[in-house]
From TrEMBL:
Quaternary assembly: Homodimer.
InterPro entries reported in the protein's UniProt record: L-lactate/malate_DH, Lactate/malate_DH_C, Lactate/malate_DH_N, Lactate_DH/Glyco_Ohase_4_C, Malate_DH_AS, Malate_DH_type1, NAD(P)-bd_dom_sf
Organism the protein comes from: Coemansia reversa (strain ATCC 12441 / NRRL 1564)
CDD domains on file: MDH_glyoxysomal_mitochondrial (cd01337)
Gene Ontology cellular component annotations, sorted alphabetically: cytoplasm
Protein name: Malate dehydrogenase
PANTHER family with a match to the protein in the record: MALATE AND LACTATE DEHYDROGENASE (PTHR11540), MALATE DEHYDROGENASE, MITOCHONDRIAL (PTHR11540:SF16)
Keywords: NAD, Oxidoreductase, Tricarboxylic acid cycle
Molecular function terms, GO-annotated: L-malate dehydrogenase (NAD+) activity
């Protein structure tokens, strides 16, 4: 019995993500919320022959009901990029949207897991944390920035370089944040060894860091990644759901490092310093983050340098989010 709400369900990500969640047999209730078009999306998805119940919630008056009695809220609400924009350019609009949605979750389902997709994730997750703190219900183990698309791209882009690699099973830990150089793939620590030259690793790292731009450019004004993001979001939601059901699952995610202060020490020493938030591999359970998983070995010198670069940019992004939420 797992109830999931998708907030922003009528959007480019929201629609295919909701469909994939309808196919997830662990989901028993699916609440679809948006400020436009969601009754049609919900009616359409509700005809898919799986056992879950789909309900539509339209507009701010139905927001409280949309997030009542839920175990997990997935948030892809907000505007996407157009060519020439950075993710940070989305802050002005998306910051307020995420704040409002998280306030509603805090008031109606304070124990729900929250998975934030809306960009800029490096700032929207700190906003969500501040909102939850202000409402007195912040549990760092239950708040997640969804960085799965970076992990998905890393596996797939390695496969583009080496056709003997299985993109579906290769796991590359990706740490840091979710924009440009804050995205740090640790190719040297992949789940199975990947033999690449130094220049290939540099190019691969750059491609993973700026993978979102490839899609923004190809869509030419019609938005950013939606289908691969729906896949990534559904995969992350499924990992959270498997955790809720008692399985132990490991996924990288952008979290508050307070979720596991002892486990965070390794990444702090590697360059995260005193940052409050960082993407790290986490083990999930019914409590959310059960621990930050050790990287298992030292990243390469190139990767350590990339972590230092990421930390500097992340610090500013986090402060922007915190200041917004505090009204500073
Ligand atoms: N974390 C990640 O890896 C990724 C994040 N994104 C981000 O996801 C967000 C959504 O992208 P798309 O689905 O392509 O955009 P979209 O514009 O197609 O859909 C956004 C949806 O949010 C809804 N919305 C707007 N304000 C809302 C509110 N106050 N409450 C509820 N719903 C609201 C809109 O009506 C629309 O249906 C963007 O911020 C984008 O940058 C996109 C790809 C990857
Ligand atoms: O690039 C964007 O704006 C959307 C995104 O976060 C991604 O595709 O990784």
């Amino acid at each position: 019995m797992v109830s999931v709400a998708v907030l922003g369900a009528a959007g480019g990500i929201g629609q295919p993500l909701s469909l994939l969640l309808k196919l997830n047999t662990s989901v028993t209730k699916l609440h679809l919320y948006d400020i436009v078009n969601v009754p049609g999306v919900a009616a359409d998805i509700s005809h898919v022959a799986t056992n879950s119940e789909v309900k539509s919630f339209l507009g701010p008056k139905q927001l409280a009901d949309a997030v009542t009695g839920i175990d997990l809220a997935v948030i892809p609400a907000g505007v996407p990029r157009k060519p020439g924009m950075t993710r940070d350019d989305l802050f002005k609009i998306n910051a307020g949207i995420v704040k409002t949605l998280v306030e509603a979750i805090a008031e109606n389902s304070p124990r729900a897991f929250i998975a934030v997709i809306s960009n800029p994730v490096n700032s929207t997750v700190p906003i969500a944390a501040e909102v939850l703190k202000a409402k007195g219900v912040f549990d760092p183990r239950r708040l997640f920035g969804v960085t799965t698309l970076d992990v998905v791209r890393a596996s797939r882009f390695v496969r583009d370089l080496r056709s003997n690699v299985d993109a579906a099973s290769l796991r590359v830990p990706v740490v840091g944040g979710h924009s440009g150089t804050t995205i740090v793939p640790l190719v040297s620590l992949a789940s199975s060894p990947v033999e690449l030259s130094e220049s290939e690793i540099k190019e691969l790292t750059n491609r993973i860091q700026f993978g979102g731009d490839e899609v923004v450019k190809a869509k030419d004004g019609a938005g950013s990644a939606t289908l691969s993001m729906a896949y990534a979001g559904a995969r992350f939601a499924d990992s959270l759901i498997r955790g809720i059901k008692g399985e132990s699952v490991v996924e990288p995610s952008f979290i508050a490092l307070a979720a596991d202060p002892a486990g965070a020490e390794e990444i702090r020493k590697l360059g995260a310093g005193d940052l409050e938030f960082f993407a790290v591999p986490v083990e999930l359970s019914d409590k959310g983050v059960s621990r930050i998983v050790s990287l298992g070995a030292e990243p390469s010198a190139f990767e350590r340098e990339a972590i230092a670069v990421a930390a500097e940019a992340l610090s500013a992004n986090i402060t922007t989010g915190v200041n917004f939420a505090k009204g500073a």
